[in-house]
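Q: What would this chain look like folded?
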Amino acid sequence: MGVRKRNSADQRKEANKQVAFAKLLDVPSSPRKMRLVVDMVRGMEVNRALGVLKFSNKEAAARLEKLVRSAVANWEAKNERKADAGELYISTIFVSPAPMLKRLRTAPKGRGYRIRKRANHVTVVVDTIDNKNA
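A: My prediction, written as structure tokens:
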């Protein structure tokens, strides 16, 4: 690795040390279904988002609620103090597709139809509301 590339990688690592985030990998649901739930809580204050997710009847909401709690715990670990009520908000949240499992379903006349079992990755970044205004 060249010097310039190593320096930029080190800067990126240092910047990531300041950010509290959580990732959920290989969730066995389609990215489209997960994005419906993610769009409900994007930019919300954390406690309000947890309330919305708790009472949502989508299957993805339970997984996302657990992920947001993990991101808050990561923020508390990095800052070495408990988060006050209303202090944190979801600054970034996005869904990206994971590799698909491809299966073959038998079809008429000796053919086979492909079944694509989709999965996704979810990333949540939590930040303080003070940084949102700055």
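The two ends are 36 Å apart (CA to CA).
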